[in-house]
Amino acid sequence: MALGWATWTWVWNSSGPRFQDESWFDRTTVEGGADKRDHIWSGYAISHLFARQYQGGLRLA
C-alpha cells in the first residue's frame, strides 16, 4: 500500500537522485546520532517480536 502511494504521488522527472553527507553520527548534530541508533534498535526489536508472534510463541491479543 505504501509503495503504491509513493509511486502514485511521485513527481516523475522532477530531479535525479541526490547524494549528500547527512552527518548522522557527527558530534555537531543535535542528537549526536542517537536517533539513528534508536531507529536501528527499535526495528530490530519489532522484527523479532513479529517473528515470535508469527511462530506462535507470543500471544498479543
Descriptive terms for the model:
61 residues; mainly alpha; 48% helix; 0% strand
3D structure, described in words:
- The protein has 61 residues and is an all-alpha fold.
- The chain contains 2 helices and no strands.
- It starts with a helix and ends in a 7-residue tail after the last helix.
Report a brief summary of the structure.
The protein has 61 residues and is an all-alpha fold. Helix content is 48%, strand content 0%.
Mean pLDDT: 78
**Residue fraction in strands:** under 5%
Give the low-confidence spans: none
- Most strands sheet: none
Radius of gyration: 18 Å
Ends distance: 24 Å
Number of strands: 0
Order of helices and strands: HH
Question: What is the count of DSSP helices, taking H or I runs of 4+ residues?
Answer: 2
